[in-house]
Amino acid sequence: MDSPSTRSLELLALLQSGRTWTAHDLAARLRVSARTVRRDAMRLRGMGYDVSSRPGPGALYALRPSMKIPPLLLSADEVSTIITSILILEAWLPDDAKAATARTKLEQVLPGGLQRRAAAVALSTQVLREAPASVDWELVGTIADSVATGARLGFDYTDQRGRHSRRRVEPYRHLLRQQYWYLVAYDLDRDDWRLFRLDRMEASTISPGPHAHRAFPWNSIEDWLTSDFGASDEH
Amino acid sequence: MDSPSTRSLELLALLQSGRTWTAHDLAARLRVSARTVRRDAMRLRGMGYDVSSRPGPGALYALRPSMKIPPLLLSADEVSTIITSILILEAWLPDDAKAATARTKLEQVLPGGLQRRAAAVALSTQVLREAPASVDWELVGTIADSVATGARLGFDYTDQRGRHSRRRVEPYRHLLRQQYWYLVAYDLDRDDWRLFRLDRMEASTISPGPHAHRAFPWNSIEDWLTSDFGASDEH
DNA sequence: AAGATGCGGCCAGTATGCGGCCGCAATTGC
DNA sequence: GCAATTGCGGCCGCATACTGGCCGCATCTT
């Protein structure tokens, strides 16, 4: 299953996930010692892959996309993962056909063996619906693009008390919390960080960036929500 | 420069070029014997790469693109949907790298514009973790296959009171409910429908089918759970 | 300042991969 | 249909290359 000669590929796949890892994490995943992970990373660097690392607490192994990476293929387990995750969303959004059609189309382009696996997972899995949450996928795309390009966003907003206003913000993150979708953004008029529920946003327009990305002044969104939630437009 | 442990990557790069090769060519290029090339190709196949080959004069070693998504297959919204659903699973299973690596690999096979959209969605979205739930993807695959083929499943089970037993069942559905994963199956020894928590199953073996699919005698799994949950092995 | 983490040298033990050989199968071209 | 070419994978003995542990040192966070 895992042999030294294929470990370089597995390591590459792990690093490519975008997560950061400690040598110890990688060692556990690959079932080798940390020393060997360091050696493997060194070999990858020797082949031209930009494996970055940094010592100290909160250490980091990551792959900077520098050169072309060989096509890393989906394993059967990963196909199970993808199909399952789409099924979860289908269960959450039973009136939204996007997920189901996407899953079907995806299955069609998988090679034979994986196609059977995907169909089997879809057939054998049932998700009991937990929390209804509908979302406007076009708005999700708009937010995604504006975050990626550093563009600003304008929209009509109706707050929890029913007051209407026009907002101009710098989007920071799109957030799923409990059963609602939110936008975490810097409100340019109110000069503060705010939380907006996506289903209360309307007529959004994107004003082309790029602007510099504003630094989010908390360690994490969780920190912000727990320390400061009273000040935002949503609880 | 060229060591056994990185040769799989080099071979992949050579095959990726689109050329076709004879084993002898590859052997010369990689400075190993043709026998070793065959072994390497075998390992790649074992990892899911579709390395095609054909004997005879004008022979051929090539890498068939296993999954390539045509530009018009998926809409931007559908890509947002898929990526989001994987992100949700990533948030649920923060210690499971499968979802993250799968998402990254998926991004790679998307055509350019959609690839940017996928990256943007992943960058701009954050999911706050609701319920921890870990799952053994290999077991998910086993269940999927057994449901698809009508095979039976045997496994060691530890029930909620800590009692161990060996079970022989006919799997019906794989179920995500609240924060746990379950198997809905017909227990052949107890002659009844039962619910098994996946994390309490061990040493599962599949006994080849196909057997006829047993009819599930309720309208839905929800109905069964609400009407009859006292009789099952899990609440 | 302290703790966490990465780096890479060294070394002994050994697992792993290697090459060569084989009979067999598949494909091409005559 | 036959011969030539090439891939497949089992087997075996050998030695290379990998492994893990240990170390002192550098780097980064708190």
Give a short summary of the structure:
With 235 residues, the first copy, chain A, is α+β, with helices and mostly antiparallel strands. Chain A contains eight helices and eight strands; from the N terminus they run H-H-H-E-E-H-H-H-E-H-E-E-E-E-E-H. In chain A, strands 7-6-5-4-8 form a five-stranded antiparallel β-sheet. Chain A has a two-stranded antiparallel sheet with strand order 1-2.
Description:
Two copies of one chain form a homodimer. With 235 residues, chain A is α+β, with helices and mostly antiparallel strands. Chain A has three domains: 4-64, Arc Repressor Mutant, subunit A (Orthogonal Bundle), CATH 1.10.10; 76-124, no CATH class; 137-231, SH3 type barrels (Roll). Chain A has eight helices and eight strands. Chain A has helices at residues 4-16, 23-30, 34-46, 76-92, 98-109, 112-124, 137-149, 221-228; strands at 50-54, 60-64, 125-127, 152-158, 164-177, 180-187, 192-197, 201-207. Chain A has a five-stranded antiparallel β-sheet with strand order 7-6-5-4-8. The first copy, chain A, has a two-stranded antiparallel ribbon with strand order 1-2. In chain A, helix 1 (4-16) packs across helix 3 (34-46), helix 2 packs across helix 3 and helix 4 (76-92) packs antiparallel against helix 5 (98-109). The longest helix of chain A is centred in the middle third of the chain and has 17 residues, at 76-92. Chain A is globular and about 65 Å long. The N and C termini of chain A lie far apart (49 Å). Chains A and B meet through helix 1, helix 3, helix 4, helix 5 and helix 6 of A and helix 1, helix 3, helix 4, helix 5 and helix 6 of B. The structure holds a DNA duplex (30 and 30 nucleotides).
